[in-house]
């Protein structure tokens, strides 16, 4: 895994291209540790998550599953709870961190995204796809189900029946198909992928700091609230924004512009 620091955002790149960037045990532990450091750094406002070509991530490491996981479950006195602990605190730790922090996470999906790799990408706040991107939903083929929050997300984006169709078929969605289904925000030429992801980070950094920090947890929360609950949340949050210098300065600048053009 590599990190590239750019002013107030960081590019985190999964970097085992020969194996399509699988999320092995050591890599997942390292990824979670680095992301924790980044979200605790006040100078980092946004993070781009991507992979080294040709893939974003092939998901869980099948070799590790065969050599380590199965043996762990068979021989450990903890049985299946040992794997439960890993899924909850390592895989789950990554997606909880991405969704729980107030910083912007942008997934730059440069190629195939499968399994838990797909879950990590879809957990991000924006998903920008290269025209080479492919989203794989073939959990069932290896006797698994969606994990790390992916089932929750897909059923809310696509509905129950479409999600079930994808899982039963093991469909491989092209970037354009994913865009049509609302699973990605935009599709761009491959050589423009990082430039476009960086654009969104710069847009976020250009906002008053509190605007993103308040909007992200609000939008993440209201999806599961009733309309009445959501509007109450907004009613409590908005007055604080009105009191900020950033809001006052922006209003005054807009009024001056209008006055000058009149």
Key attributes of the depicted protein:
262 residues; alpha/beta; 2-enoyl-CoA Hydratase, Chain A, domain 1; 2 domains; 11 helices; 10 strands; 16% strand; globular
Quick recap:
This protein is an alpha/beta fold and 262 residues long.
Structure commentary:
- There is one protein chain.
- By secondary structure, the chain is α/β, with parallel strands linked by helices.
- The chain has two domains: 2-206, 2-enoyl-CoA Hydratase, Chain A, domain 1 (Alpha-Beta Complex); 209-261.
- 55% of the residues lie in helices and 16% in strands.
- The chain contains eleven helices and ten strands.
- The protein has helices spanning 25-39, 62-75, 80-100, 115-123, 150-158, 160-169, 175-180, 193-206, 209-222, 227-242, 245-261, and strands at 2-6, 9-14, 46-51, 55-57, 104-109, 112-114, 126-130, 134-136, 172-174, 186-188.
- Strands 1-2-3-5-7-10 form a six-stranded mixed β-sheet, sandwiched between helices. A four-stranded mixed β-sheet has the order 4-6-8-9.
- Helix 1 packs parallel to helix 3 (80-100) and helix 5 crosses helix 6.
- The chain is globular.
Chart the SSEs and their pairings.
Elements: E1 2-6, E2 9-14, H1 25-39, E3 46-51, E4 55-57, H2 62-75, H3 80-100, E5 104-109, E6 112-114, H4 115-123, E7 126-130, E8 134-136, H5 150-158, H6 160-169, E9 172-174, H7 175-180, E10 186-188, H8 193-206, H9 209-222, H10 227-242, H11 245-261
Parallel strand pairs: 2-3, 3-5, 4-6, 5-7, 6-8, 7-10
Antiparallel strand pairs: 1-2, 8-9
